[in-house]
Task: structure prediction
Amino acid sequence: QVQLVESGGGLVQAGGSLRLSCAASGDTICISVMGWYRQAPGKERELVASMTNGGSIYYKDSVKGRFTVSRDNSRNTAYLQMNNLKPEDTAIYYCNADSAASSCPLSNYWGQGTQVTVAT
Result:
C-alpha cells in the first residue's frame, strides 16, 4: 500500500505561482510513476503532468512552459511548481502514483486532493 498526502494549494491571483507537494509513504519502493491530475467543477479529471522513475516527463499542452514536475526520491516526494497561473487552472489537484515496480503488485493510488483557485 502507498499513501499520498498533498499540500500547497490555495488562492492566488492570476499570474502568480504555487508549489504543490505530494509526500508518499508505505511501499514507496513500488512506485514507478508519480503524476498530478486536476478536476475542475463539471469537468472530468485530467492528467496535468507526470514523471517516471527513469525521469521521463509528460505535460498537458496547456501547462507546458508554466508548470514543472519534479521528484525528490530521498524524501519520497513529488512536486508541481505552477507559474503564471491562469483562472482556467482552478481545480482540485490530485497526486497519483502507479505501483508497477518489479515484484510489486500492480496498483494505483490517489491523494486526497488540494484546492487551487486562481482569481482574476
